[in-house]
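Bench notes, afternoon.
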Amino acid sequence: MVLPSQDDGLARARGNRWRTLAFLCLAVVLSLTTWFSATAVAPELQHVWGMSDASAAWLTNGVQIGFMIGAVAASIVNLPDIMRLNQLMSLAALAAAAANAVLLLEPSIAVAVVARGVCGVALAGIYPPALKLIATWFRTGRGLAFGALIGALTLGSSLPHLFRALGSTLDWRVVVAASSIATIVGAVIFAVMAREGPYPFARAVFDPRQIGAVLRNRQLVLANLGYFGHMWELYAMWAWFLAFATAALSGGADVSVPAASVLTFCVVAVGAIGCLIGGVLSDRIGRTATTAGMMIVSFCSSSSRRRSRERRCISATWGDKAPVLMTLPRRPPQMSTIVSRATLTVLR
């Protein structure tokens, strides 16, 4: 009888990593639908709830603020070390689904904004731990793996717009309910299919003294500043584009819901392709060169200006933004690698 060697076990583990990556990406796509679910139906909510533009904007801002609070809180209490990663992501997805479903109760605007904040806190328990978990499966090709996961986040964020387009004749509640149901399915996948790989990280405890060391690390500070600028540009465009598309397509007349929502879905979702390209390039030519190149293209594209009549507005915008759609709506996997290394020092 020949006992399996350690090398055989690692070979099987390497084969399983693609299966794990596929299920993890699927779960992230489904779970991240709650991020922009309220943004996708903001026009309907403004009409039904009598919300102002500023109040509607807080339905998006609440998620962003909640995510930041959740990420910092998870770091302080060292949550990814206290819980198994798949359990953490599963429970976080269930919490996000529940917070998202609060909108179905048609609460006050204040309660709705708080619920969106809670949703953001919960989402902080999905995306960063997912990056950490997949890193335990990949030592080589980690850029591609991160690119696939971040592409899944991008695609998931775009899906509420597709839900809205496909259900344009239905009530806005269908979009919100579909997002919560998708997130619950994602929670089940996390719980059943997500497991840590053969390259686990060492356990660590939160050390506040490391904050100073991080701030003195020039390369890390520059990476964080670049990532901050990219995130500002990214979420501004994601949150703004539906309003822009609706106004640009209308030309002063009523515009159908599907047209603006389908365009917004395409604009956001196509960023997943940029994530994969960035992941492949980061493994081949290096993370710094890939990140700098992608962000330069994004800057040049978003800075270009073209005056045109209203009837040409969308075609001009699409032409100007085509390179941005491949770079801006993609959270760069190579940058995430740099930033997550510092984050994981605290998280793990």
